[in-house]
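Let us practice reading a record.
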Amino acid sequence: MTTVYGTYGPKLKRLPEWVKRVTDYVYEKLGRRQHFYSGESAFAQERGAEFARRLAQGESLYLLGVGPFGHNTGVALIKVSAKDGIHIIANNEEERFSAEKHSNKFPQHSLAEIRLIMASRNISAQDIFCILGSWDYIRALGFDLKIIFEHAPSSLTLLNPRHDPNFNLSHLVKGLGAPKRISQSLGLETTQPLIGMHHHNNHAYLAYALSPFAREPEPVILTVLDGTGDNGAISLYEVRDGQVICHRQNQSTIDSLGYLYGYISSTQGGWSFLSSEGRYMGAAAWGNASRLTNPYYKRLRQILYFAEEGNIHVNRTMVNWHIKSHTEPYGQPLIDILGAPIAPGDMWNPDSVLSVDDIEHSDITQDRVDKAQALQLVFEDALFHIVDHLIRKTCAHKLVLTGGTALNCIANMHLVQHFNRDYFQRYLGQDQCLKIWVPPIPSDCGVALGAAIQFAMRNGADARNDFASPYLCGLAPSTAQIQRAVIEEQGVEARKIGSLSQADSLTEVARFMASLVCNNAVIGVFQGPAETGPRALGNRSILANPRNPNTLELLNSKVKFREKIRPLAPMVTLEEAHRLFELDEGAKTDDYSAYNYMVLTARARPEARSRVPAVVHVDGTSRLQIVRQSLNPLIHAYLKQMGKQCGVEASVNTSLNVGSPIAQTPAHALQTLKRAKGMDALIMVGASGDIFAVWKTDSDFKRRLAVFEAQALDVMPT
């Protein structure tokens, strides 16, 4: 018999349900006046039926997805037809244009860029069939109030927006004006309706549609494990015969694995919410990874109750974030285990932030990273518990992970290794292993696109789409825009060094880039539309020498100015990936495409530690990206040249930014070059294929450029 320690579930039930029903009724009426509708409304069903009818008649229809408020706002555009399926045109993230990380502001810059994209394709605002919201905002307010009232009266302090400035009730109330603002931003004279689509369904439909499993007949299981949603934080799905079936949504944002990891990583690591999770995961690698000997794991595991049928409940005796949110997030039992939480006012304070610089001689630091590893182990226990239930329930062996927690790439690797052929043979009598896929945009930066895809698939469109790469954020910069930015940015110079459209020129530029990096230069790459999602994948990247063991220190101290706990990631060709890393069988689908987006780690082979020491983390893993020639010819050619000159078809790859979101515009890229003291040059590519080398005027890069074999370099006009 299982012994349960603590308390689980809400204190009150009838009052919160009544609050939700009243709020839903009132907010729905207010929404209709503002042309704002729930995805479950009669209006949404009517628009869906009209969409299906016109689709069946052979029309091509445009859908606009919008995240108008809440963290990670943005805008997406797709084209749908019965003949060609779903064509993904753009997924613009507001933070890239505003330079405000996890922006919760109205996406005015993203909408302005969408208008430019539409104009380049001769699409008018009147051509948009429907505008879809990234949350079912009309229903979300009532659900949030229900959660707050579950522990009334003590929890009513959460009604104050200061407890969560990124996304709170004030956003939902102010957001009623979103349809009018969106319509005005598109240049429309009348307000167009906005239909809010179910948040976790947006995650699910997007992830399934982009996955290689959508092209295969076998059933697929899908998890959305998030911080919060319209009606829960954990949603479990099965896709069978093309139909997305929701098995469960847990109806709670307190029983949330996203919040569990977010609150503890923030209050133990010293970084703010949404910026803490990846850093803490990196710190965990220095901790004791044994469930038998980690000094915190067994006690911390009591923070979760592992219930039947894959259910997870958070111990509300140990936590207090359902009462006081960020201001007093721990109960006394959790303080007894982890110590007092770092207060919001002390976030980013150098005396509070977790650093491993003294890991060799500080017992205090070892203690802190052991806590990080304990949290990682508990999170993985919960993930395994949920996935085990889904596999046994459905007998499926293909899994898509999405929601913010799907960015936990080390847990994703352990998941594949746990549900191996031995597991399937023992428990299901199948000669199978778990096959996994994670989209490049599993977090909320993908839900605007997910809203459009969900509406399309629920109303007659199948999952067929032309997704090939995540280079979907904004327009590719023109040569003229790059030239203008260089002229306007003081302290930089540039020369044209080649063209992507000429094979010989591309090879020479790639050879030049490899020569620089093999000699320990650090260079940036700025080309095409930006990547959507949290990872730089070759269009907005900083490249460095993977063979130099000092590269990590160089990039962290003189280029990125970031913590040592954050490892560097490699980009590699498929052939080199096989030579350097133990690629898991469960990631083999679609020629190992699960490794395309830095969402899955792999164990480094013994020889990798000596051949590419800069990209092997302290725990012997690497979060790799496999680069395909068809998707990124310049970077693939560069990696091939790295093999010839440096001995490995590999490179360090980190994002083109310094203390800000990934660079979006030519001006952003040039500012990054100037801020990164240890960065030698920037390779910039115009939409026409013209390639430029850009450097700081006071650097000695001209000397390196002089040895480049292409002698006929056109000096950039000034």
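A brief commentary: Residues 709-718 have pLDDT under 50 and may be disordered.
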